[in-house]
């Protein structure tokens, strides 16, 4: 499928591009995932074997030109001889205890039918991300709900300055009219960027500020991304 830059692709073209993108993922055949597109929203359906495959399919669809939203109806197939919730919870607690990047005793684990809820409070966003990534490949994990929060430690004004400076240093967001609002460690991004990739990059930049506890990404994709009236 050929995409002409500057021309908004049709839903049919978007569907083909999503299917092509899924087919390029190692270990994930395109026949495993059904794709429907309407109103620039891609709906994914079918069965996969792991949470990693589900996440990869979602990320691939979001990265396709023209996709503004993804409805994920993909299911993870039940594993034969999967551990019980009790054994899985015990294994997760032990895995987190072994991880030097995760503060000892800071995270609590709830497991129900292979779905994992992580709660607790840490100082840095990388600790929250590491906690999730360290258990993502574990056998029996079907879904992860990461509710770990961050401890705010920096004045809002300083956080805003740091995030704005980082946005200005990054090629994807440099020159974009992005407003940064900070309240009690929570960052709200508003304004315009040229692409989904730039929107995700702006959010990633905000999370990279260690004192940020929450990010609400309200950035819009449009022609005013580079300061046009």
From TrEMBL:
Gene3D superfamilies: 3.30.1340.30. The keyword Signal applies. The keyword Signal applies. Residues 10-78, 84-152, 155-223 form the BON domain. Keywords: Signal. It holds the Pfam family BON. InterPro entries: BON_dom, Lipoprotein_DolP, Transpt-assoc_nodulatn_dom_bac. This is BON domain-containing protein. It comes from Herbiconiux sp. A18JL235.
């Amino acid at each position: 499928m050929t995409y002409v830059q500057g021309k908004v692709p049709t839903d049919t073209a978007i569907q083909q591009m999503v299917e092509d993108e899924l087919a390029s993922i190692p270990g994930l055949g395109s026949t495993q995932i059904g794709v429907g597109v309407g109103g620039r929203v891609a709906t994914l359906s079918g069965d996969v074997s792991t949470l990693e495959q589900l996440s990869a399919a979602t990320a691939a669809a979001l990265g396709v030109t023209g996709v503004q939203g993804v409805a994920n109806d993909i299911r993870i197939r039940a594993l034969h001889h999967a551990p019980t919730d009790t054994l899985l919870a015990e294994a997760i607690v032990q895995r987190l205890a072994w991880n030097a990047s995760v503060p000892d005793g800071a995270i609590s684990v709830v497991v129900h039918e292979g779905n994992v809820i992580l709660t607790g409070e840490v100082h840095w966003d990388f600790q929250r991300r590491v906690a999730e990534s360290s258990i993502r490949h574990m056998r029996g994990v079907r879904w992860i709900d990461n509710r770990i929060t961050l401890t705010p430690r920096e004045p809002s004004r300083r956080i805003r300055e740091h995030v704005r400076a980082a946005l200005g240093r990054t090629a994807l967001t440099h020159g974009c009219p992005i407003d940064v609002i900070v309240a009690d460690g929570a960052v709200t991004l508003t304004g315009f960027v040229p692409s989904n990739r730039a929107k995700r990059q702006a959010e990633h930049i905000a999370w990279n500020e260690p004192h940020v506890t929450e990010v609400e990404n309200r950035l819009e994709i449009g022609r005013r991304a580079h300061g046009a009236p």
